[in-house]
Specification:
By secondary structure, this protein is mostly helical. Among the domains are: 1-79, Serine Threonine Protein Phosphatase 5, Tetratricopeptide repeat; 249-383, Serine Threonine Protein Phosphatase 5, Tetratricopeptide repeat. The protein has helices at 2-9, 13-26, 31-43, 47-60, 65-77, 81-94, 99-111, 115-128, 133-146, 149-162, 168-180, 183-196, 200-212, 216-229, 234-246, 250-263, 268-280, 285-296, 301-313, 317-330, 335-347, 351-363, 371-382. The longest helix has 14 residues, at 13-26. The radius of gyration is 26 Å and the shape is globular. The chain starts with a helix and ends with a helix. The model has no long low-confidence stretch (mean pLDDT 93).
Length: 383
């Protein structure tokens, strides 16, 4: 196992697997070596091999929670979600009232879409140890998302009363108020939480609450100051850039995206948004950024849309249409993609098909970037 870890640290995954297979064959009862082998097989996409080892190990240690966790994760990786859920339920039964294990099991259950049993596991964890804060927080968050907002609010208020010196109670209360649409109260809660803990997530949530409450200028002012005083906080910087982009402040958005790109040059969505901005400003570098983004995230609808639209605008409608069709396949409800397809089809002389896409884009009765141009184009084609 030591040699396997060494090979793994050097990136030699095949050699690491070879040493673990040797450990497995040398000692049939070496559970830790088998679990490590399952982990490596899963990480390298060899799910069938991982499942074979996990099930063999389960026969030797049928009530070992680590082993059952590996079996459940293998079922999930193979798309056997019902079997994964059943395995994790069995784990929750075997875990008794151990809060740390139940918290971990609940996370597994959420990952396989079993929110109801995740709540049950977290409730057991809280009953087993009411002072185990991770379970208390997770239970509040899961109840807020999947179950009862009233129960989530009650638990958030209880946490605020129990831990007045910590940010978590105010933070969760802010989340509850956001869910209720009471944005001013949410902003007040996030401000109180930030006063106790300087946390990037809280900064972004406060910004969002202020925006939704209608104080756009105050929201931008706050996040600009936060980003300037916390220059390493990339999530907040990205939230600010996206806010500028949504409100049409392209130069301000560009500055922030370029700052992020200097730190994360391989982020496809930063590259994509920069490509979008540069295309809006008519700069030829837009295509290079869009192509880089596509190399990194070829299955993302927004990336395909941006690349396709730039190609259309640069006089390559046939090539652009292929990317736009891919984007439409992945995000068929997006009216902006349909509008972009219509423009490409017009350039290709396929007016009837273009009109169908224009009608579909405008018939969705949703605002999108280019909706004014789309309406004008449809009127022109109808004349």
């Amino acid at each position: 196992m030591g040699l396997a870890r060494l090979e793994e640290s050097l990136g030699h995954m095949d050699e690491a697997v070879r040493w673990l297979e040797k450990a497995r064959s040398t000692d049939a009862n070496a559970v830790s070596a088998r679990l490590y082998l399952v982990e490596l097989y899963l990480r390298t996409g060899q799910t069938e091999a991982a499942m074979k080892v996990a099930q063999e190990t389960e026969l030797k240690a049928p009530e070992n929670l680590e082993v059952l966790g590996a079996v459940g994760r293998c079922h999930d990786a193979l798309g056997q979600h019902a079997l994964a859920q059943a395995t994790f339920r069995r784990m929750a039964d075997l875990a008794g009232f151990d809060p740390k294990w139940l918290y971990r099991i609940a996370r597994y259950q959420l990952a396989v879409g079993d929110a109801g049993n995740a709540i049950w596991s977290l409730q057991k964890a809280v009953k087993g140890d009411p002072e185990f804060l991770p379970a208390q927080v997770a239970l509040t968050e899961v109840q807020l998302q999947y179950a009862s907002i009233d129960e989530a609010e009650e638990r958030a208020q209880a946490l605020r009363a129990r831990y007045p010196e910590r940010a978590i109670g105010d933070s969760l209360t802010g989340d509850v108020m956001m869910k209720r649409g009471r944005y001013a109260e949410a902003a007040a809660s996030y401000r109180a939480a930030l006063a106790r803990e300087e946390n990037p997530r809280l900064a972004v949530r406060l910004y969002q609450a202020l925006r939704r409450d209608g104080d756009v200028e105050g929201a931008v002012r706050f996040l600009e100051h936060w980003v300037d005083t916390h220059p390493a906080d990339l999530p907040s910087k990205q939230a600010l850039a996206e806010g500028h982009l949504r409100t049409g402040q392209l130069d301000a958005a560009r500055v922030r995206y370029e700052q992020i790109l200097a730190v994360r040059p391989d982020s496809p969505f930063i590259l994509n948004n920069l490509a979008y901005i540069l295309a809006k400003k008519g700069e030829p570098r837009a295509l290079a950024y869009a192509e880089q983004a596509h190399e990194l995230a070829p299955e993302a609808a927004s990336v395909n849309d941006t690349l396709g639209w730039i190609l259309v605008q640069q006089g390559q409608p046939a090539r652009g249409l292929a990317y736009l069709r891919d984007a439409h396949y992945r995000a068929s409800a997006d009216p902006e993609i349909r509008y972009h397809m219509a423009v490409a089809l017009i350039q290709l002389g396929r007016h009837e098909e273009a009109m169908k896409n224009l009608n579909a884009a405008l018939g969705a009765d949703r605002m999108f970037d280019g909706v004014v141009e789309a309406r004008a184009l449809r009127r022109h084609m109808a004349d």
